[in-house]
Amino acid sequence: MGSSIAFSFVPFREEDYTDYRSLTSSPRVMEMISGRALNENESRARFERALQQNQIAPGFGNFKIISDTDNAFIGLAKLVLAQEEDREVEIGFMLREPYWGKGIASEATRRLIDFARSKPQLLSVKAILDPLNKASRKILVAEGFVSEFVGEIDGLPGEVMNLVL
């Protein structure tokens, strides 16, 4: 089943910081990511890292999810390589609250996994999430991810899930 909203991925650019900040400043969006909304400095640092990640390899990085009907900013999806030669890629997403529960994260995850599968050098996709994030976990399990680690990650509760391609 697809999303109830048609959308596209567009790589984040420097001028998209306001959209990015709309996610990181939301306590509800960030609750399962950092445990709290980010301040301006934290948000700017993460955004700069996201822009750097967008330069590692074509087709990988941090993407704005944009509505095809009205160009509304829906959220972020990422498929990130730490280095171009890596054999594992990290997947993730953050959606603005009005778009929760509409199948967008599921559809975005499927699209990113399909892209990863098209890259023969990649062996696996990993996701890092809060173990209490039942919605994200359900999406990942439905796509075949399995839990590899549950415990503290960077001082927060975390779970690493993996999908072998």
Q: What is the average of the pLDDT values? A: 95
Count of DSSP helices? 5
- Distance between the amino and carboxyl termini: 21 Å
DSSP strand (E) fraction? 25-35%
Number of domains: 1
- Which descriptor suits the 3D outline? globular
Q: Would you list the SSEs in sequence order as H and E?
A: EHHHEEEHEHEE
Strand order of the largest sheet: 1-2-3-4-5-7-6
Architecture per CATH nomenclature, i.e. the level-2 architecture: 3-Layer(aba) Sandwich
> CATH topology, anyone?
Aminopeptidase
Supply the CATH class: Alpha Beta
- State the CATH superfamily name: Gcn5-related N-acetyltransferase (GNAT)
| Annotation, overall tally of beta strands | 7
**Which runs of at least 5 residues are low in confidence (pLDDT < 50)?**
none
Give the proportion of residues in helices: 25-40%
**Structural class per helix/strand content?**
alpha+beta
| Rg over C-alpha atoms, rounded to the nearest angstrom | 15 Å
